[in-house]
Amino acid sequence: MASASPAVLPESGGRQASPAMIWSALGVVYVVWGSTYLAIRVVVEADIPPMLGMSARFLIAAVLLAAFLGLKSGPRRLRVTRQEAFGAAVVGLLLLAFGNGAVAVAEQTVPSGLAALLVAAIPLWLMLLRVAGGDRPRALTWGGVLIGFAGVALLALSGGDTSAKPMSVAILVVGTICWAIGSRFSPRLGLPRDPLVAALYEMAFGGTAMLLLGVLLGEPGRLHLGRIETPGWIALGYLIAFGSLLAYTAYSYLLANAPISLIGTYAYVNPAVAVLLGWLILGEHVTWKILIGGAVIILGVALVVTAERRTSAS
Q: How far apart are CA 159 and CA 276, in angstroms?
């Protein structure tokens, strides 16, 4: 999963930036975040237990990011208050341990493209959370929510046309809800103001929680390092270097320099990238139900984001 959804993006800092740099960063977010679903699928198919694999991904990335920030700016940059540490722990638990962890667990049977399409429904859950908090969205927003969830239902039913198991689809849906809850309430948790420091602690706490969950699920007994083939190690390295470090850096740059309307387009592009790569590289079965359900979800999300953008502008 990406680190936030279009519905919760902060405003751009308004600084002038090179169009070439903006589009380069956006291209990284388009391709890399879309490709992480493929990489996760390769990791779990390589006999790397999902929770332990994702724990290694985020803990190693956290160590590398801490080393980089410490060498660049000194150890004082890494200091946080108890409140900031608590906020980062909650976000890391909801977004990474439960959200991203659910993706990894589900992708043991759910094709990577189908997983990405289901995750694209996160802005719809966010909208329902806003309604529960007292917001009264426009009719167009409600239409987008209803259309989007019709697409989710269609995708859930299409699982029978693939290797996906109903329980795996259910776990994935629960994971998207956890991601939405974490995204919705993260601004109220007093996170570190430095987004890179916040990401560092979120990855550290989330990775630690994944490690503990993996132990509770008995994953160490299924981990046999000698059986892991080269593609599994390559995919894990890709997730560390590109999914958890490069893409987040590009995303942080976009938040400071690009308009929300442009940044939010990743929610529509990532599923397309994931479906294409899953079909092209892994030979995943793509049915008409999956294509139609995915298109319906993306249409619903587009209506929600468009309606909210008009509300913000008025």
A: 18
DSSP structure string for 44-109:
HHTT--HHHHHHHHHHHHHHHHHHHHHHHH-GGGG---HHHHHHHHHHIIIIIIIIIHHHHHHTTT
Nearest residue to 284 via CA among 292, 294, 274, 293: 274
Residue 119 near residue 53, CB atoms below 8 Å: no
Q: Which two tokens stand for residue 173?
A: 């849906």
Please name which of 159, 95, 193, 170 lies closest in space to residue 290, comparing C-alpha atoms. 159
Read off φ and ψ for residue 125, nearest 5 degrees.
-65, -40
Token pair 């979800």 is at which residue?
297
78 vs 201: CA distance, rounded Å: 9
In which residue are the tokens 């803990």 written?
A: 59
Q: How many CA atoms lie within 13 A of 21 on its CB side?
A: 14
DSSP assignment letter at 147:
H
Q: Which two tokens stand for residue 221?
A: 């007994």
- pLDDT at residue 8 in the model: 38
- List per-block mean pLDDT (blocks of 10 residues) for the chain, which spans 314 residues: 41 57 86 91 93 95 94 92 93 92 91 82 78 78 81 70 76 89 82 86 94 95 90 95 85 66 68 84 80 82 72 59
Residue 101 pLDDT: 94
Question: Which three-class secondary structure state does DSSP give residue 20?
Answer: helix
pLDDT at 1: 61
Q: Which two tokens stand for residue 15?
A: 């600084």
Q: How far apart are CA 137 and CA 142, in angstroms?
A: 7
